């Protein structure tokens, strides 16, 4: 039979998850966004709550229901997401599954941009803060286990390995988000787990819920080693 500890391997832990896209306003009625549905991040939050964790889910704009037993903080922009993550710390485990917009419009007017004789307005962009790198590189209050995702369309493993080093996280969940894979917005995901030690594990194509359950089982193992 299963012990209570085995059934709820994350009890007593606080797990923080980011999920969904961010929306970066251009003017009061327009924004930049991406195709993330939030399904994978929300499934991780749900699986972690089912495994006994106290879960804080920081979510960009999604159409999904709040997972049961999870504290959900809704945000719109990357900068709001970073502030919400910092406010939710400390955490034992942080999983950065959100598809954070890399750039936002450099200026934000109070008024709707109007068409005019000068043609389309220039859309100047500026870089958003990197939430994962900011948290993983903290000298104080860094969660003992920091997990990133890597959305790639080519050279998945090479890019993911570079990301793990650059961002300072412990584990990267890499996935191929080429349009043909249907990962963005779809219900299934094919992921590879890349460890800081160079380890590589390829999982079969699975429902996002199943990816979430397996990942949570793995995180519980790693967290019990980290403590
Ligand atoms: N991430 C983040 N904040 C950002 C950008 C990315 O927290 N401003 C996180 C994502 O949640 C993910 C990881 O960083 O866990 C990798 O995101 P990805 O978009 O794959 O990598 P980038 O570093 O943004 O590089 P690029 O998009 O150029 O591949
Ligand atoms: Ca990016």
UniProtKB/TrEMBL annotation:
Its cofactor is Mg(2+); FMN. It comes from the Bacteria. Pathway: Cofactor biosynthesis; coenzyme A biosynthesis; CoA from (R)-pantothenate: step 2/5; Cofactor biosynthesis; coenzyme A biosynthesis; CoA from (R)-pantothenate: step 3/5. It catalyses: N-[(R)-4-phosphopantothenoyl]-L-cysteine + H(+) = (R)-4'-phosphopantetheine + CO2; (R)-4'-phosphopantothenate + L-cysteine + CTP = N-[(R)-4-phosphopantothenoyl]-L-cysteine + CMP + diphosphate + H(+). Residues 15-227 are annotated as: Phosphopantothenate--cysteine ligase. Residues 10-221 form the DNA/pantothenate metabolism flavoprotein C-terminal domain. This is Coenzyme A biosynthesis bifunctional protein CoaBC. It comes from Methylobacterium frigidaeris. The chain holds residues 187 to 413 of 413 of the full protein.
């Amino acid at each position: 039979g299963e012990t209570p500890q085995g059934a709820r391997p994350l009890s007593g832990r606080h797990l923080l998850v980011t999920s969904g896209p961010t929306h970066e306003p251009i003017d009061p009625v327009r924004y930049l966004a991406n195709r993330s549905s939030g399904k994978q991040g929300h499934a991780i939050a749900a699986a972690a709550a089912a495994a006994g964790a106290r879960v804080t889910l920081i979510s960009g704009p999604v159409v999904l229901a709040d997972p049961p037993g999870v504290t959900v903080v809704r945000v719109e922009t990357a900068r709001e997401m970073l502030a919400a993550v910092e406010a939710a710390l400390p955490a034992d485990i942080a999983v950065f599954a959100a598809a954070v917009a890399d750039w936002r419009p450099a200026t934000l007017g109070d008024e709707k941009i109007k068409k005019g004789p000068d043609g389309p307005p220039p859309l100047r962009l500026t870089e958003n803060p990197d939430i994962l790198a900011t948290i993983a590189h903290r000298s104080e209050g860094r969660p003992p286990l920091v997990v990133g995702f890597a959305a790639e369309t080519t050279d998945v493993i090479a890019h993911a390995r570079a990301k793990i080093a650059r961002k300072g996280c412990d584990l990267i969940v890499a996935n191929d988000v080429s349009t043909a894979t249907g990962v963005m917005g779809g219900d299934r995901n094919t992921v590879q787990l890349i460890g800081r030690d160079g380890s590589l594990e390829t999982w079969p194509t699975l429902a996002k819920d199943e990816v979430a359950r397996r990942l949570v089982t793995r995180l519980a193992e790693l967290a019990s080693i980290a403590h």
